[in-house]
Amino acid sequence: MKLFKSIKWRLQIWYGLILVVVLAGFGGTAYQLERNRQFRRIDDELHRRIGVIGNALHRPPMRGPNGGSQPFDRPPRGQFPDDGPPEQNERPPMFREFHLPEQDAHFFDSSDPNQFYFSIAARDGRALARSTNQPARQAITKGAANPFMAVNTISPRASNPPKPVPVFTFDNHREIAEVLPSGETIWIGCSVAPELKELRRAKLNLIGAGSLILLVGLIGGWWLVSRSLRPVSEISGTAVKIAGGDLSQRINIAEAESELGQLASVLNSTFARLETAFAQQKQFASDAAHELRTPVSVILTQTQTALNRERDAASYKQTVEACQRAAQRMRKLIESLLALARFDAGQEILKRVPFDLSKAIADSTELVQPLADERSVKIFVKAVPLEITGDPERLAQVFTNLLTNAIQYNRTDGEVRVSLASQNGLAVFTVADTGQGMAADDLPRVFGRFFRADQSRTGGGNSGLGLAISKAIVEAHGGTIEVVSEQNAGTTFVVRLPIV
Amino acid sequence: MRVLIIEDEPDLLTSLAQALREEGYAVDTAANGDDGLFSAEGTDYDAIVLDVMLPGLDGWEILKRLRKTKKTPVLMLTARDQTRDRVKGLDTGADDYVVKPFDLEEVFARLRAIIRRSANKTTNVIEIGEVKIDTAARIVLLKNQPVEVTAREYSLVEFLALHRGEVVTRTQLYEHLFDENENSMSNLLDVHVSNVRKKLGAEFIATRRGHGYCIEG
Q: In this complex, which of B8, B15, B55 lies closest to A301 when CB atoms are compared?
């Protein structure tokens, strides 16, 4: 049932169904209108003939060759009924004879395709006269109760008297009847075979035209649906390639304005972000591996050299010390990587305890003092007591890291200025150094992983992850960290933490 | 053979230098890019071991600048083993590369190979008359019998053999056999030459007065 799950096919099927219903409605209505028109014309004709017969019936009988009428016993097209000539004394004198006037004879001409006929019945139901072409089965023969007859009425035209006239339709024939004020009933009938034939032709024409329109509509619909769904196949094709691993694929957006075009551009930006995230992850893994290569190289080279020949104890000690340094470096790197991974996964659990930030800063300053002395860097601290809620150890790590950087990237005899102040409900901590500053290009990457200002790894075991971890810690506290730097003037880091 | 190692990780640098000295090389070291380029441009080393990631000038930059003046064979030490890094290194003018972490044996072998190639030799064995020098095993054979030589003597024989038919000056020999830290006496070289002649025959090394030494053949 894949066919019915396809949007294309479902649209096409619904579209086809609607088209069929609309066409059927139109065709049916057109057919009905045509049918009504035909029958109204016939009914008008029948009415005219009722008038003609009625007039002929009430005209006084005219005898003699000069009369336009013919005697009733030898009518051109009318004749007595089969049960013989009526008795003269049994009916009113004026109906003793019926003459179809000559000038009216064409109304019942047998060459007319409708084969009009008439029949006149007396008040008591006896047949007075009828035309020769009257069909065997006729409404009058059995009265109005003939079960084969569909009895209905037609509303006369406005010009006719507003009196409903009974209409009978049966076996390709249509008849109407009128009861005269004098009691006689006139029946006028005709064959409707030509009209029915006409209607059948009209029906076939309508069906043919409808089928043609349906076919054209279905083809057009298929084209439209295919066209409008083309971006979908484009999108899914691209998505398949991306799922296959080629993250550089993008959807080719031809119609950016359409709904699918908008979807495609949303997907494209998602793909772009995916690609960036993947590239970052790949870069991160590659950098991490790279960072581990150097200490491993140290251990391998040191041990292989040492084992090459017999050595004295001092030499072995040197080797072991070098290996220890390498191992410490790897441990530090692994710890940093794990910390970052925990922050990334949101698994790092921070303590939430109130503590004095200025004390934490004093502790950190004390910790880095030996390094500062070694480089002849002076540290100036200007901090107000400020209590915040957070993780004292993690924040101390941030301060120590920023201070260490400020000392390491400072010039000899440089200065580091530390300040802590409260500002708009935030604790603002700044560390400014007098180093050579950073290039503007580097600033956006400062907090990136494995970023190093000088690409060296001699910066006192600096892994290039310190600022990335600091950023993660500060952000986990709901704070921000930013950097301002001016080349040859110095760099300033600003940490803002909410005072809770 | 005299080599220069440019490497910023101190523990790696000292152990590499020690290992190469024990292999008989005269070894100079530099801990950053600028010092490294200065040394590399100032001395005719037989080979340079160059780390890619360095403070100051990085390995690529040193290589690019060095190639403007010198054809010294360069073995790159790289922590990146992606093809594009290797291709970049080779295209910039490196003769070979070793990916960290490496085995010392591999560094030795690659170093021997680039030195040999720079002297247009394709095999490890150099034959001069009845003397055979196996540069891979670092041994000298006379009439297919191993001859006991010191590391310095071997280096002397190897250097002269690699420059067979050329006159090698005393300065050249000093440059290639002793590193910058050895304050060698000028007669130390004569002692080595005399010892080699005793072991391999007096005619093996010819003296060109006022020019230097030469292995003919």
A: B15
